[in-house]
Amino acid sequence: MKRILCVLFSLMLLVGCSSTPAADSSSTEDTKEPTAQTSSINVYTRDATSGTREAFEKAIGLEELTATAIEVSSNGDMATKVGTDENGIGYVSLSTDFAANNVKPLNFEGVEPSEETVLDGSYGMQRPFSYVTRAAGDFGSTEKEQLVAAFIDYLCNSTEGMLVVESAGGVVDLSKGTPWAELAKNHPIVNQDNSSITISTAGSTSVEKTLKAALESFVPLAGNFQFVMNQTGSGDGYKRVLGEEKTGVNAADIGFASRSFNEDEDVSTAMSSGQYAIDAVVTIVNADNTLSDISADSLNQIYSGTLTDFNAVK
Amino acid sequence: MSRKLKDSLLNSITYLCAFLGVLVLGSILIYVLINGLKLINVDLLKNDYWSKNYLVAVENDQSSTFECDGCKGYFSSKWGVSFIDEVTSHNEKVISVEYIAENSPFEQLTSLTAGETYGQIVPMEKGYMIEKIDYIDSEGNTAIAGKILKQDAQALQESLDNASSITSIYMKSPGGGIRGSLIATLYLILISLIISLPIGIASAIYLNEYADKSKINRWLRQGIETLTGVPSIVYGLMGVSVLFPVTTVFGATGTSILLGGLTMAIILLPTIIRSVEEALIVVPQSLRDASLSLGATKSQTIFKVVLPCCMNGILTGVLLSIGRVIGESAALIYTMGTFISDNPVINGPATSLSLMIWSFMSAEQPNFELACAISIIILSVVLILNIVVKIVGKKLSKNFV
After folding, report:
1. Domain tally for chain B?
2. Rounded to a whole number, what is the distance in Å from the CA of A125 to chain B's nearest CA?
3. Strand (E) or helix (H) holding A16
């Protein structure tokens, strides 16, 4: 009795183990099979914490997502899944390699997604990465204030800073860049030992990747300063720099938001404020799909579940 | 007959349930192992989380060419260094240095960063990641190469072979390690146990040895037991508002390990009180009577006779507490912060290992593999601590029964 049960148990364990890693792929196949004959749309979306999802839903004015939407965990995952699903539709960031994933980027409201159209503002599905600093004279020390000013200059105006931001996924206008060696002349602070200065940042989590890359590359250029990133959400960007939390436990030197600062957030008192990069979201379909252009309205209908057939998309 | 049937039915249900439990736990363990094991290596344990960033200059000596027999990657014979494409544990594509030839200019890198280290030699090691190289090409134009131009190792090597001199190199040491968080986790366990153990044991002794069976004491006990059910995030919020002023006395300016430890100590109290009390109940009354009849006072009896006997209960409390502290994340998000620190100090912010998992999983691109790898480390830390505590406990425990 015992021996039989032991064998049975170990068999079950084996079966359980071998099926766990494969569970993902089998579940997507399940969703694919029944729809292969019909051309009903399979809607793919990102997990709820994703900044890309937030930007996408805002751009198409989505209020409630359809219950049949399939959630994927990352940008790459989204591209792979849509690339293998003829009837799939999803959205990724502009830096994705479309051809390699067998997906096709769609024009949004007739405008082709590209760095040029994003930068000139004609491509609508985009959001700015904005920053705001503390008020001049409110940094605690003049060295820190000068260093923050140097960093902002590096981030927004130098070729090196722009390249770093671009390689981390932001869209920047490289033609406006100036070599850092020239800009550095205005910032004598970077030529001294700054290892005792700590710059703290707050705000959006979406800017984290570009910001981390920029800060890390600026450290050796500016005397080994320290930095602390406490990214919690766009709302905290203004609050912890100029708003009600500017003197509290969570006070920061530079705040970030993955949107423009709104009317309640008065940035006029800041030492400097602006945007350093743009994040663009692109709607993708499978490469075999004949669709090439989509409007915000159609996307809204597809993602809210009222439009379920690609042939009906105008 | 029906008796037999009933028995076998009950037996099989028991077996089935036991198997289900072990099956689920075993599957989780194997899932974690399959996904995480390939990322576990000494570097993960040893490295800092944050890379060190260097801006360095190369001595431009063009006299010799270098050879590389059998070294991997794309080898630049002009500079004597080879690069490979790698993917870090954070799923980032990088170009890293694989091999540096003897007497290569890359052996003599001097720091260009302002400050004390200016002009000092930076040792280049295998595994360093090349982000950007500023160089002057064969036609005398300045150019840039490296990862930030989305180049791969081959393109970097080709650019370098075309360079007549190198102006500067921006490189990073390999980061992504969990050493800081591991140390912070041990600090956290230590602080919370140091605070909660004496209080917990004393409370248990009071409840079991001194307290009479009045209504108030019954309510007290009931209250302590109910506290185990309070969601830990509530304790976390309480920690921020009530305990933060306490930690400022010790020099904390924001979230800190100390604040996390104090909060965890409160979360642990019910568990410790409960397990110690249960052990106290089991100590036979005859032992106490014997001790008292020999002329010992009540406190002598408790501390010299009763307490050594319930060492096992205290140990159970400690073991449960370690598991609780190491697995807690909700309460610590508010009290310890989410900034990963490489050199944790008691009154500064840091993350514990489970907080690290939380921040990796809530990032823009969730990283399951790394989360599983950290889970494996958490499991082994718990295992090691449990064994240590058991060995120490055996040495301390006395059994008069």
Report:
1. 2
2. 18
3. helix A2-19
Rounded to a whole number of angstroms, the distance from the CA of B253 to the nearest CA of chain A is: 7
Task: Please tell me whether residues A109 and A137 are part of one structural domain.
Answer: no
Is A46 within the bounds of a domain?
yes
- Do A165 and A85 fall within a single domain? no
CATH number assigned to the domain comprising residue B361:
1.10.3720.10
B115 φ, ψ (degrees, to nearest 5): 120, -165
Domain span at A85: 40-124+280-312
Radius of gyration of the CA atoms of chain A, in A:
24
Sort strands A88-93 and A42-46 into parallel, antiparallel or unpaired.
parallel
Are residues B288 and B305 in contact, defined by beta-carbon separation less than 8 angstroms? yes
A-B contacts at Cβ under 8 angstroms:
111
Q: For residue A19, tell me if it sits in a domain.
A: no
User: In the numeric block, which tokens belong to residue A263?
Assistant: 């009317």
B112 interfaces chain A, CB cutoff of 8 Å? yes
pLDDT tens track for A186-219: 999 988 888 889 898 988 888 888 999 999 999 9
Q: What is the tens place of the pLDDT at every residue in A75-113?
A: 778 888 898 888 899 998 887 778 888 899 999 988 999
Domain co-membership, A133 together with A274: yes
A116 touches chain B (CB under 8 A): no
Q: Is B51 on the interface with A (CB under 8 A)?
A: yes
Of all residues in chain A, the percent with pLDDT exceeding 90 is 23
Measured between CB atoms, does B246 come within 8 Å of chain A?
A: no
- The answer for A 261-290 residues in CB contact with B (under 8 A) is none
What ipTM does the predicted assembly reach?
0.72
0.80 surpassed by pTM: no
